[in-house]
């Protein structure tokens, strides 16, 4: 009887997840991105060069392109902190899951979601900086909850509370326990016990997050570029070795996007759903998480920081996920029964014997930094709800969950985390639509040429 009850509970969670991530939410995600992109007159695409220059200037000087301003981290560290949480299992296992369930065509819709997500990421990070606050610890705090409260007024405060609640609890699942479990699973294949992995990762997490956003930003500013660079380089080597097969892979992706021949049941709807959903999981555009990190960045220029932040979607999905997808499609291993990380490892090993170890290394570093980045997200959501007093206890609980996640089964937690992630997106996207006049006006009034001259 207990097995039947557990099965029913699992099925009910799957049903809730399918509703939360159903057509209405996917339309809201894509529709918001399209609305912002058109309303901004395609500025996020036209100003990618400006954003890149601002990021490089920040990385080179240790400051943003504006020499003055307040914030705990510079623009580059803010972007890297966001990427630390964003670049995770979605780039390795998520892409494989999308292709495994929706066929190669799912990659096309992942690209489309990412292109529209550039505008969404710009808008949500811009308003996060515009409406941020300074807390009792004299740190800059922001994100969708503050943008809702300060930008939309007291009568919308409940919407910010809803977002913060979902954000606090979602982090323990998708940003911590599940990541620790994936980390332990990979290392266990090399003979390292899950408990040892959990304790080791917990110690590292404690040392980093006890220093708050400043220490997380410094660590992310070093680790994220290195780990992403190694993974992209290995994928690039494989693609160069099979360069003649790349055009056929692109052709297959585009054709399958509208036929669904390789999808489960041959349904085009499955291809679209898997592509958009996994694209959002990968780059988090619209979830409202990245703005929490970006709000701590200096110089406090909303447009400049929004422009730097939108590069995260380009780096995460249009570069890293595309590399993973092309290797998988060229290998043809998506036709086998393997899924997730094992599918990606199999594809890399097929193309370049031994490259699967690099996938394992990438998975370890991706999941580890995701735990660090998401700790900051959930901490800020909790602070919005209860102030700074519970932060110390929150960090201890967060570290404990790392050990629990490494040693436990998290099938149900995956479903709960998926549901909470989807529920986070809804209040954030609604607030973006309501705050769109602010986004359009600040962007329209911004002198991009003057800012570039200062770089």
How would you characterize this protein structure?
With 455 residues, the protein is mainly alpha-helical. It has helices at 2-20, 23-39, 43-46, 48-61, 75-86, 89-102, 105-130, 144-152, 157-188, 194-209, 212-241, 246-259, 268-283, 290-294, 302-331, 340-351, 356-386, 391-407, 411-434, 436-445, 448-454; strands spanning 133-134, 140-141. It has a two-stranded antiparallel sheet. Helix 11 runs parallel beside helix 15 and helix 17 packs antiparallel against helix 18 (391-407).
Query: Reading side by side through the largest sheet, how are the strands ordered?
Result: 1-2
Q: What would you call the shape? A: globular
Radius of gyration: 21 Å
* DSSP summary: helix tally: 21
Amino- and carboxy-terminal Cα gap: 67 Å
The tally of beta strands, per DSSP, is: 2
Helix content: over 70%
Relative strand content:
under 5%
Largest sheet: 2 strands, antiparallel
How would you state the average pLDDT, rounded? 80
Order of helices and strands: HHHHHHHEEHHHHHHHHHHHHHH
Structural class: mainly alpha
Model regions low in confidence, pLDDT < 50 over at least 5 residues: 1-5, 63-68, 262-266
Q: TL;DR of this structure?
A:
By secondary structure, the chain is mainly α. It is built from 21 helices and 2 strands.
Helices and strands in order:
Layout: H1 2-20, H2 23-39, H3 43-46, H4 48-61, H5 75-86, H6 89-102, H7 105-130, E1 133-134, E2 140-141, H8 144-152, H9 157-188, H10 194-209, H11 212-241, H12 246-259, H13 268-283, H14 290-294, H15 302-331, H16 340-351, H17 356-386, H18 391-407, H19 411-434, H20 436-445, H21 448-454
Antiparallel strand pairs: 1-2
Helix pairs in contact: 1-19, 2-7, 2-13, 2-19, 4-5, 4-15, 5-11, 5-15, 5-17, 6-13, 6-15, 6-16, 7-8, 7-12, 7-13, 7-15, 8-9, 8-19, 9-10, 9-17, 9-18, 9-19, 10-17, 10-18, 11-15, 11-17, 15-16, 16-17, 17-18
